[in-house]
């Protein structure tokens, strides 16, 4: 009897540890077409939809979604964005495959929070920042990043070269291989950082094409 009980308890432990996933986020607001891909399944999101580690969230044209990531913070995905919740735990990492995302990260006492693209990694401990894909001049698309509050450490994936971007500053990762110097860009003043519909509109209509008028002497060599 004791052996059977131990086997049963071990079975319950394995189910709890490996068979069930803890909720890592929730859809608090959405407009338009939002799709969630979980393993081999894909389905439309709804208000209150639970999100889990490994989920891929896709926003359609003229769509946006706001996600509360447990106690980590809030994400706002603009239209035509693909974001993967790669890891949501003590150390949290997100993968931005296309589009753009606003991230408001609560101050972290322990652990880390990062957003990755194919070319760079942005790491923070508590801040508000925006990342978006820009034009493709060569083989890799440019990536824009600007900081509304706090500090963001940005590092290139291929070389490890890094730079610290401060509040009010922005940078561009040119073709995934060159970091511009952090500086103030006028276009960033037009960004809508609001993630609370009760406080006003959450839609951001900033045109990233205008960002290139602020970026002079680009060096893609």
Write the layout of secondary structure elements.
Blueprint: H1 2-19, E1 23-31, E2 34-38, E3 41-44, E4 50-52, E5 56-59, E6 64-69, E7 73-77, E8 82-87, E9 91-98, E10 100-105, E11 112-116, E12 120-124, E13 127-136, E14 141-149, E15 151-156, E16 162-166, E17 170-174, E18 178-179
Parallel strand pairs: 9-11
Antiparallel strand pairs: 1-4, 1-6, 2-3, 2-5, 5-8, 6-7, 7-10, 8-9, 10-13, 11-12, 12-15, 13-14, 14-17, 15-16, 17-18
Structural summary, described in words:
The protein is mainly beta and 221 residues long. The protein has one domain (23-213): Jelly Rolls. 8% of the residues lie in helices and 47% in strands. It is built from 1 helix and 18 strands. Strands 4-1-6-7-10-13-14-17-18 form a 9-stranded antiparallel sheet, with no helix packed on it. Strand 17 (170-174) and strand 18 (178-179) form a beta hairpin.
Keywords for this structure?
single chain; 221 residues; mainly beta; Jelly Rolls; nine-stranded antiparallel β-sheet; nine-stranded mixed β-sheet; 1 helix; 8% helix; 47% strand; disordered N terminus
Concise structural overview:
The protein has one helix at residues 2-19, and strands at residues 23-31, 34-38, 41-44, 50-52, 56-59, 64-69, 73-77, 82-87, 91-98, 100-105, 112-116, 120-124, 127-136, 141-149, 151-156, 162-166, 170-174, 178-179.
């Amino acid at each position: 009897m004791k052996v059977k009980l131990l086997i049963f308890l071990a079975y319950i432990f394995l189910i709890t540890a490996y068979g069930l996933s803890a909720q890592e986020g929730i859809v608090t607001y959405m407009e338009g077409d939002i799709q969630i891909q979980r393993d081999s399944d894909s389905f439309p999101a709804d208000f209150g939809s639970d999100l889990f580690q490994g989920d891929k969230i896709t926003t359609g044209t003229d769509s946006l979604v706001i996600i509360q990531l447990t106690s980590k913070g809030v994400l706002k995905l603009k239209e035509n964005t693909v974001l993967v919740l790669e890891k949501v735990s003590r150390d949290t990492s997100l993968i931005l495959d296309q589009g753009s995302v606003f991230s408001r990260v609560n101050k972290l006492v322990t652990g880390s929070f990062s957003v990755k693209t194919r070319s760079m990694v942005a790491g923070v401990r508590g801040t508000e920042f925006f990342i978006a894909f820009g034009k493709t001049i060569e083989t890799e698309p440019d990536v824009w990043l600007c900081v509304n509050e706090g500090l963001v450490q940005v590092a290139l994936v291929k070389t490890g070269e890094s730079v610290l971007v401060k509040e009010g500053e922005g940078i561009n990762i040119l073709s995934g291989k060159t970091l511009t110097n952090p500086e103030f860009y006028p276009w960033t003043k037009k960004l809508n950082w609001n993630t609370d519909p009760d406080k006003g509109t959450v839609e951001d209509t900033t045109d990233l094409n205008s960002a290139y008028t602020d970026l002079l002497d680009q060096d893609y060599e």
